[in-house]
Structure formats: C-alpha cells, structure tokens
Amino acid sequence: RVAITAGVYIMLESVNKSKERITVAQSDPELGLTANQQLSPMNWELLTKILAVLKPAFIATKEAEGDTCSISDVIPLVKKLHHEINAVDRAGIVTLKTSFVNNLERYFDSKYNIESRKEYCIATLLDPRYKSAGFRSKDNAGIAKELLIQEVITDRQSNNSSPQTLNVSDRSIAPETPSADPWDAILVDTEDSEEDATEDTILPI
Predict the structure, then answer these.
(1) Helix 74-86, helix 94-104: angle, nearest 10
(2) Residue 33: what are its φ and ψ, rounded to 5°?
(3) What phi, psi does 166 have (nearest 5°)?
(4) C-alpha–C-alpha distance, residues 125 and 141, integer Å
(5) Which of 3, 17, 122, 178 has the highest count of CB atoms within 10 angstroms of its CB?
(6) pTM, 2 dp
(7) What sign does the CA torsion over 191, 196, 198, 201 have?
(8) Measured CA distances, 98 to 90, 94, 127 (Å)
(9) 202 by DSSP, 3-state: which?
C-alpha cells in the first residue's frame, strides 16, 4: 500500500510541477472548458496539502528500496513515517490524514505487528544507529530486549556452556548516539523511545 501511495505521489507531483502550463492551457477558449472542469486556486492548494501527506510515504519507499536498506531499518522507517505524517498540518485534509494514519496502523501494527516480530525487533535493537530508540513503543522495545536475552540463553545452552551469571545491567545496550538529520527528532521524539537504563536482571547463561 505504501508503494502504491508513492506512485500516486509521483503522479500528483508531476501535475503540481505543471501547474503553470495547465493553468494557461485550461484557459484556452478552443478547449471550451467550463469553470467546473478547471482546476481552481482552491484545488491547487488542496493538491499541495495532499502531496504533503503522501511525500513521507514516497521517501520511505525510496529508502526501503535502497541497496543499503536492511531488516533493521524497517521498524525505524515505520516510526519515521508516522512522525512525519503526524507533523503535517491537518487543515483541509483531516479525513485524508486520519484515514492514512489509520491504514498505516492497521497494516503495520494490527496485521503484521511489526515491532513484536522477533527477526525485525532484535535486528533493530542490535543496530547501533537505532537501539531501543528505533521503536515507537517502549513496551515493544522491552519485548525486543527479552527476546534477545532469550536468544542468548538458548544459544549458550545449546553450546553446553558452563553455568555462569550474566548481569544484564552490566551489558546493557549503550545509550543512543545522536544521529544526523532527519532522524534526530524521530529517535528522541517521545519518552516511549528512551532507553530504560535501570534494569538489573540476573540471568543464567
């Protein structure tokens, strides 16, 4: 759906770039267009607002299609998409924006629950660019930590390691290093994305 939205964005952006030529052409008497058949100033303004909502999806699609994109980028990209769409002014496009955000949540949260899927959340947690700040939900970041701990325990047990004690707080994930724009605001925009450095769980390995 996001890819389809990106396609719509490209089409509408092309129309917007041709605004001057379209305006001149539609006033040509030989075309015989009535007022209802022409794009009014209000229509052009609405088009600009629609593009503002669709642009984040277009950018996210391009980033996801990039050669350097990996599985650890998926969750942060979804968070970035939500962040940028929510920052768009709702005036005149309340229904469109609300519907768009609802569809995103239904697709990524309800249908696939992307932040709770082990392969995605562990990859994001281990990526030094994101860690727990890449998640929209602090609870899901906590789930990712538990899944990672269980993976470590399982791996140790499968290798028949001798019983030891692992202090999780001693090996806690380092605080996020500030990144370059446009990720700065996204990775620290809510308390739900902050690292919980107070955990002190003792686990056998």
Answers:
(1) 160
(2) -80, 135
(3) -110, 115
(4) 8
(5) 122
(6) 0.70
(7) positive
(8) 9, 6, 31
(9) strand
For residue 203, the SS3 value is strand
Q: Could you tell me the pLDDT band of residue 87, with boundaries at 50, 70 and 90?
A: very high
Tokens of 4: 């389809």
* Distance (Å, whole) CA 172 – CA 112: 28
pLDDT tens digits for 118-158?
Answer: 999 999 999 999 999 999 999 999 999 999 999 999 888 88
Q: Give the pairing type, strands 202-204 and 165-167.
A: antiparallel
- CA dist 196 and 112 (Å) reads 26
Q: How many CA atoms lie within 13 A of 5 on its CB side?
A: 23
Task: Compute the C-alpha angle 13/14/17, nearest 5°.
Answer: 85
Instruction: Quote the CA–CA distance of 16 and 79 in Å, as a whole number.
Output: 28
DSSP string computed for 165-182: EEETTTTPPPPPPP--TT
Q: Which tokens in the block code for residue 175?
A: 């605080």
